[in-house]
Amino acid sequence: MSVIVVGVDGSEPSKEALHWALGEARLRQATLRAIYAWLYPNVGGRGYIPPELLDRAVLSRSAQAKLDAAVTEVAGTSPGVDLERTVVEGPTARVLVEAGEEAELLVVGSRGHGGLAGLLLGSVGQQCAHHAPCPVVIVRGHGRSVGRALERDDQAERKALSSCPSFTAAQTNRPPTRTAGRPTSRTRTIAAALCM
């Protein structure tokens, strides 16, 4: 079975990405792997910090709780797909790119700093788009309304979304695939999803 990876940090854009990825996983009958990446805090020169705030086990449990809360809020208790929840210590972009090695698709949300500012600051989405070994979808805006559309009948849903330029580009610009469905080149599809 194929795997779709989605980055979740509890923010609204990541919840929209999760919602979009749930719909796509239903369409593809794929396993959805929701990943929450966290970093050990840099505490140099900050005075006293309670030891429990620096305990990796506590930080990992906190990350798991945030992931669980976001998944429950978006997917409920019956997501309708195989859903794996994974918490990993490390920089978000690196964690997601590495997870992309086993994925058919990588989905992330867009926080959008706007225009040139976003380019100068960089983002997880940009890093994933440049380095992921699989197609990447950056969900922007109204992912939840699209997610509801994806729950409808396959044919009707694809017909309704065919007028959306981003969706059409995502469908027609897919990289070539082998029988196993893995990309044969480092080509990626980036769709700022979606138009609704």
Spatial separation of the terminal alpha carbons: 30 Å
How much beta, percentage-wise? Answer: 15-25%
Backbone shape:
globular
* Structural class determined from secondary elements: alpha/beta
Overview of this protein structure:
With 196 residues, the protein is an alpha/beta fold. It has a single domain, classed as Rossmann fold, CATH 3.40.50.620. It has helices at residues 12-28, 56-75, 92-99, 115-121, 124-131, 143-150, 154-161, 165-172, and strands spanning 3-7, 31-38, 83-89, 105-109, 136-139, 190-193. Strands 3-2-1-4-5-6 form a six-stranded parallel sheet, with helices on both faces. Strand 1, helix 1 and strand 2 form a beta-alpha-beta unit. The chain is globular and about 50 Å long. The two termini are 30 Å apart.
Write the layout of secondary structure elements.
Layout: E1 3-7, H1 12-28, E2 31-38, H2 56-75, E3 83-89, H3 92-99, E4 105-109, H4 115-121, H5 124-131, E5 136-139, H6 143-150, H7 154-161, H8 165-172, E6 190-193
Parallel strand pairs: 1-2, 1-4, 2-3, 4-5, 5-6
